[in-house]
C-alpha cells in the first residue's frame, strides 16, 4: 500500500468520523482541509502535528476528542500522550482513538486503568471500520435517536408497562452499536419499512456481549 492510498484511507476515515459524530448529535469543528482530498494531502505533506489531526466535537457543553495516532503499535507510553492531551482539555470526558495497526495488550490495560481511574469514556476503532457509513448500508434499517430516561418510561408504558428485558437486544460490540456510541441499557429507536412503503417504529436495548 503506497503513501497516497494510506492518505486516502485516513481522509475517508475522518469524513466518516465526522458523519458518525453528527449522527450522535455533536457539533464538529471541521477544518478547511477536511473538505477535499487534494487539500488534505497538501496539509499532510507539510508534516502535520498530532494535535492538528485531532477532531474536536461538542454536545451540550461537553467536549469529545478524536485522535489519529501516528504509531502503528499503540502501547502504554504512546497512549499516555493522548491521555495527557485530553487531560489538558478540562471539559473533555470522552475520546475516541482511530488506530491503523494494533493496540498491544499493555495498551489495552493502560486504557482500562485510565478509564476506571478517571471515569472517562474511551472508544477505539480500527481505521478499516470507518471506511464507510454503516447506517447507509441497504440491509441496515433506519436508526433513530437514543431515548432519554423519560422517553424510555413512556415507551415501556405504551407497551403495557413492559420492562427493558422484553425488548430486542443489540450487543454493544455490534458495529451499529459502536457507530451510535451505545452504552449498556440505552434504548434506541429502529424505524423499519415494509415492501408497501409503510414505516413502523420498534426499539432495541443495548446489552453486554460479543458479536460472532
Q: Can you describe this structure?
A:
- The protein is of the alpha/beta class.
- The protein folds into 2 domains: 3-130, Dna-directed Rna Polymerases I, Ii, And Iii 27 Kd Polypeptide, Chain: A, domain 1, CATH 3.40.1340.10; 134-207, Eukaryotic RPB6 RNA polymerase subunit, CATH 3.90.940.20.
- Helices cover 36% and strands 26% of the residues.
- The protein has 7 helices and 11 strands.
- The protein has helices at residues 3-23, 37-45, 50-53, 76-88, 105-118, 149-158, 175-180; strands at residues 27-28, 55-59, 62-67, 73-74, 92-99, 102-103, 121-126, 142-146, 168-171, 187-193, 199-207.
- Strands 1-2-3-5-7 form a 5-stranded mixed sheet, sandwiched between helices.
- A hairpin with a 5-residue loop joins strand 10 (187-193) and strand 11 (199-207).
- Helix 1 crosses helix 2.
- The two termini are 29 Å apart.
Could you give a short description of this structure?
It contains seven helices and eleven strands. The protein has 212 residues and is an alpha/beta fold. Helix 1 packs across helix 2 and helix 4 packs parallel to helix 5.
Low-confidence stretches: none
Regarding quaternary structure, what we see is: single chain
Count of all domains:
2
Topology as a string of helices (H) and strands (E): HEHHEEEHEEHEEHEHEE
CATH architectural type of the largest domain? 3-Layer(aba) Sandwich
Strand order of the largest sheet: 1-2-3-5-7
Helix count equals 7
Strand content: 25-35%
Amino acid at each position: 500500500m503506497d503513501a497516497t492510498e494510506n492518505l486516502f484511507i485516513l481522509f475517508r476515515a475522518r469524513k466518516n468520523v465526522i458523519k458518525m459524530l453528527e449522527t450522535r448529535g455533536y457539533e464538529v469543528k471541521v477544518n478547511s482541509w477536511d473538505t477535499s482530498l487534494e487539500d488534505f494531502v497538501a496539509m499532510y505533506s507539510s508534516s502535520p502535528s498530532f494535535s492538528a489531526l485531532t477532531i474536536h466535537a461538542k454536545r451540550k457543553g461537553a467536549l469529545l476528542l478524536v485522535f489519529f495516532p501516528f504509531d502503528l503499535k499503540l502501547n502504554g507510553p504512546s497512549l499516555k500522550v493522548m491521555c495527557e492531551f485530553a487531560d489538558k482539555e478540562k471539559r473533555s470526558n470522552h475520546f475516541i482513538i482511530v488506530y491503523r495497526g494494533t493496540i498491544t495488550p499493555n495498551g489495552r490495560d493502560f486504557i482500562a486503568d485510565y478509564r476506571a481511574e478517571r471515569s472517562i469514556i474511551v472508544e477505539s476503532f480500527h481505521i478499516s471500520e470507518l471506511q464507510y457509513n454503516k447506517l447507509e448500508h441497504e440491509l441496515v434499517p433506519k436508526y433513530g435517536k437514543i431515548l432519554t430516561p423519560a422517553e424510555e418510561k413512556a415507551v415501556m408504558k405504551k407497551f403495557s408497562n413492559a420492562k427493558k428485558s422484553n425488548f430486542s437486544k443489540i450487543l454493544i460490540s455490534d458495529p451499529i452499536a459502536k457507530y451510535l456510541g451505545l452504552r449498556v441499557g440505552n434504548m434506541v429507536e429502529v424505524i423499519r419499512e415494509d415492501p408497501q412503503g409503510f414505516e413502523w417504529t420498534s426499539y432495541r436495548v443495548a446489552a453486554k456481549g460479543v458479536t460472532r
